[in-house]
Amino acid sequence: MNNLSKASLPTPAPRSSRPEILAEEIIERLTYRIGKDAKVAKPHDWLTATILVIRDRIIDKWMESTRKTYATGAKRVYYLSLEFLIGRLMRDAVSNLGLMEEITSALTSLGVDINVIAGLEADAALGNGGLGRLAACFMESMATVDVPAYGYGIRYVHGLFRQQMADGWQVELPETWLAHGNPWEFERRESAYEIGFGGSVEFVAGHDDTPRYVWKPAERVIAAAFDTPVVGWRGKRVNTLRLWAAQPIDPILLDAFNAGDHIGALRESNKAESLTRVLYPADGTPAGQELRLRQEFFFSSASLQDIIRRHLQQYDDLTSLPDKVAIQLNDTHPSVSVAELMRLLCDVHGFEFDTAWDITRKTFSYTNHTLLPEALESWPVPLFERLLPRHMQIVYAINTKVLIEARKERDFSDVEIRSISMIDETGDRRLRMGNLAFIGSHSINGVSALHTDLMKTTVFADLHKLYPNRINNKTNGITPRRWLMQCNPGLTSLIREAIGDDFMDDAEKLKPLEAFAHDSAFQQKFAAVKRTNKIALSNLVAQRMGIKLDPNAMFDIQIKRIHEYKRQLLNIIETVALYDQIRSHPELDWQPRVKLFAGKAAPSYHNAKLIIKLINDVSRVINNDPSVRGLLKVVFVPNYNVSLAEVMVPAADLSEQISTAGMEASGTGNMKFGLNGALTIGTLDGANVEMLDNVGADNIFIFGLTAEEVANKRNDGHNPRALIEGSRELAQALAAISSGVFSPDDRTRYTALIEGIYAHDWFMVAADFDAYADEQRLVDKVWATPSEWQAKTIFNTARMGWFSSDRTIRQYAKEIWRAG
Fold this sequence. Notes:
Alpha-1,4 glucan phosphorylase
């Protein structure tokens, strides 16, 4: 130990951005941190050395941001999410620091191609889809707009599965993103917390005779913190993503090991580590349900303990928590945090129940991401009570308080009481986590205007009646740094050449690009950028799948989680109908089209996996039929992740956003495609409604039933069979699929799937088919006039700036968090 006081500790000099200095440092890291001579270093060695040099420059700004927050007493935002789909980080960090040219030059001087080594970086599979990617965009935007923030989640060892195809079927394999370490993260050994499960609750008298409850867990694990810095645009602020790993209290039972029980000696270690091994374990079994609940409590409890520790380091007590802390619950996954904060306030820090409840409600806010009842989590009461007995007591106490208020003060009926209760008693008693999150938060926001309005009349209608001022809208957004500047440098350069650099700091300043929409010279340049991106995607498809694509064809892309409400099934059925039309009417002027799909199906979701198989079966038939004359190709690209999206999004001509109206909360893929100059074909669902408002009806292809019309059809009786029989093209396509035309090895493979459309058509595939097919032919017509198509694409890019996540975060900060 030295004798320097903290005040006299030297401050490191700012690190140089000169390429020659960066090159020297890369060689130094390669030699002394990785132990490799440059002459024998492999690409992955260069990648790690480069990341370490970049990381040093981030650390300076990271510490500066932390000191500033502490010195000013600024309110901190804590974003709790079970998913953070962060993707690769090197390009993101280098670009946001403004060092892309310098790092590229430094590596070039060393004989290293930045594109080669960047492609080796692991793509962290810490999310399932839009919710996790939104969390990642929000973290970057909070740093960009100078909101002090921590993201809290789980450091999954494997994350979401790696998807491979076996004879057209999805096969799930472990994703091994941590196999070779993670040079971005820092382990924080001082930030480790005990997390309990099970056991009993004892009543004891406090020192002033007030009742006090003590939870004595039967099991305990350690939550260990790993921090990743999140760099804002131009390095203005660096925030922290803190991910929790589970570790056993006793890594090995030495007595058992020495006695020869080598497996049993590691039982506790394996049990603890299983908590954070896989994202979303299949919950079709009681064991799977229990593991998922354990995961949710594990990261929620660790995060809250960490938040309280940090608060008490700076402030005297916890009564000021709502003034200095805002905790955002990203969907229902962390909603057990409401009960856990109450436990910590009451049982650990001695607050009276009503005071603790007031602090809790003022601190939490909740983002709802779904109107699907099955996606609003609920847990069997016996399971929850066995794992978290004290929390069950607290939930009952909160529920009692709320139900008495609703009955006595608001005169709620029995039906309304049953609706708002946190305990669902319609079957086996279950704890409704959406209701817990709603009741325990001062703000509940939807993620698009339509979604927010529907929340008030559907899933939360009675809670909205009880608390009419809590629901508000915050339409989602995307970070334009990742989803324009980094993934589409060609388009970024073209825009800078046309309108200058202002849009790089404020995406809404893309609007002056509208003036170039009908400029033929600019249209040609815009189209040339798109073609370059399409060639890059074509090369990827050829390399991975051996399928040759024509970059002159329209690239029609649907990339998202595979789910019946997202209607990949509608898309592939219309593709079959188009295939029939091309063969039946070869004399017509068909526009060449490539239909590209990508996305993962939940391992236990049979119909979603069957839809993937159908797409691959249709692809095999169409792509090998010479009568199509290259006018139509179908490709399912496996293992969709952030890195694949960064190639597919800039290459898209047409963006498929065709969910059943009223079922997609927002969508963010629609925004990414639009920003990169793709035209949208979609329903009036989620943020498509606001996209229509922003880009104008002439620049988007809207079709199908509205959310209100879907609800009316479901309520009044929907006769899909009559619709199918009245639509020749639909009937023929369904007959071909169900009879085995595309599955000669198993002619009944799709019979049940198609019968579901005939029987009930819950997702309105038959109801919307004709409108969808007609709109696709309008797409063909516009595509046939390149100048008209290009004008529309330029308008889309120019008018998508409002969908920046910077705008969304500023709204959260001003209207919910009161921060920044």
